[in-house]
Design brief:
The protein has 333 residues and is an alpha+beta fold. It contains ten helices and 15 strands.
Amino acid sequence: MSVFAVRTPSNPAAWDAFVCEQSQPNVFLQSWAWGEFQRAAGKPIIRMEALNGEDVAAAALLVLHTTRLKKSFLLAPRGPIIRSNLPAAALREVWTSFLEYVERVHSTDTMFVKVEPNTAPPQSLELESGTFVHPEHTLLLDLTMDETQQIEKMHQKTRYNIRLAERKGVRVRFSREERDLNLFINMLKATGRRQGIGVFPDSYYQTMLKTLGQTCQLALAEHQGAALAASILVGFGDTLTYVHGASDDRHREFMASHLMQWESIRYAKERGYRYYDFFGVAPPDSVNHKWQGITRFKLGFGGQVHKYAGAYNVVYNRPWYTLYRLAKRVTGR
């Protein structure tokens, strides 16, 4: 039995302060607001904190996902967030506290819990390696540089395409209006059909914009009033993240996505964010990765590739878990 106490937190500001202090980049997927969004979108959530005396040693938001098998799993997206300066013995204890707590509160229908922590668990716990739900690698752009330095660090072709979009009359604006969200959703559906990518129901994006408030913004690149590219940006702590993006394939010659990204970077910089997170790139040196094209596009803006600590599964129902993994391999979902 672990010596760490575990409690259900009730202070959103203290929660967010701990997550921001212990994660780099600041991960909106463990923010208090993201938990409220998931709850509003119909997914039960669990929040827990492990205490070392009066100090928080770890925090985790877990979201319950129900599969097509009518069985569920718990996901800690980019979590748990664990204090970085814990000695090895305390690190093991805090992980034990977390796992014991989840084992007590999980539903009988829960097949497993998946974690994507900021700190890898001790090898002695022998957690099972799993696949990432969220990208294992992301691209972070340092916004503390001045604008001239950022432009210099871009790929020459990226700079050219940004200027081309400007010369062609593309303009970028930011919005939270429902009509603009509908533009984004329709464009995202078309992008999904074109690329064979599934999208969430309309209500998911509507609830996101409503629940996250001003930290969630739409970026729209337009030419003569027609939307050519759009994205959803989510801010948390010192990081603005490009979460969802879509484009009109019929007008690629306007290079609207290049200008939209550049203006989003400038938007983040003007509002005091330290990082712009492109939220997912292919692993370095990978060959024929499905994200190869979008990765080249993102790398054109500069930045550094950041790798997360890992993804791990704790299995509670091995037969159903095995069936679930088999179904995923067969369907690709």
